[in-house]
């Protein structure tokens, strides 16, 4: 039967689509953030666009009469995207914390308290 030969090629194509999608998502999210877009809206829009592109690729790769299920690959892609969103959000939070600590007027006082240095002047 043809199905036995076509199914592995189809699965391979879906795997290829899923493996390329996270990199495209990361690039589009990075581009959106570089343009000054808000994190939550950029993450949401880039996620929607990435899933839409994945679905379009699956549709292009599918064989109408086979009606194969792409939901597992789509779920894996969603998990990849969600993991990247968490990683970027965490990095941004640490970046903000670092900026806050640098700008804090108490930083000098804390350093003096821990080193025992006091400037009399």
From TrEMBL:
<dbReference type="Pfam" id="PF20428">
    <property type="entry name" value="Sey1_3HB"/>
</dbReference>
<dbReference type="InterPro" id="IPR008803">
    <property type="entry name" value="RHD3/Sey1"/>
</dbReference>
<dbReference type="GO" id="GO:0016320">
    <property type="term" value="P:endoplasmic reticulum membrane fusion"/>
</dbReference>
<dbReference type="GO" id="GO:0003924">
    <property type="term" value="F:GTPase activity"/>
</dbReference>
<dbReference type="GO" id="GO:0005783">
    <property type="term" value="C:endoplasmic reticulum"/>
</dbReference>
<dbReference type="InterPro" id="IPR046758">
    <property type="entry name" value="Sey1/RHD3-like_3HB"/>
</dbReference>
<protein>
    <recommendedName>
        <fullName>Sey1/RHD3-like three-helix bundle domain-containing protein</fullName>
    </recommendedName>
</protein>
<feature type="domain" description="Sey1/RHD3-like three-helix bundle">
    <location>
        <begin position="2"/>
        <end position="101"/>
    </location>
</feature>
């Amino acid at each position: 039967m043809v199905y036995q030969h076509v199914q592995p090629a189809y699965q391979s194509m879906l795997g290829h689509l899923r493996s390329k999608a996270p990199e495209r998502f990361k690039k589009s999210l990075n581009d959106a953030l570089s343009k000054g877009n808000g994190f939550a809206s950029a993450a949401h829009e880039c996620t929607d666009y990435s899933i839409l592109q994945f679905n379009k690729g699956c549709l292009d790769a599918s064989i109408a009469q086979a009606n194969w299920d792409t939901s597992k690959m789509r779920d894996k892609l969603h998990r990849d995207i969600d993991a990247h969103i968490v990683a970027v959000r965490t990095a941004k939070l640490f970046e903000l914390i670092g900026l806050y600590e640098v700008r804090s007027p108490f930083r000098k006082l804390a350093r003096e308290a821990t080193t025992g240095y006091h400037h009399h002047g």
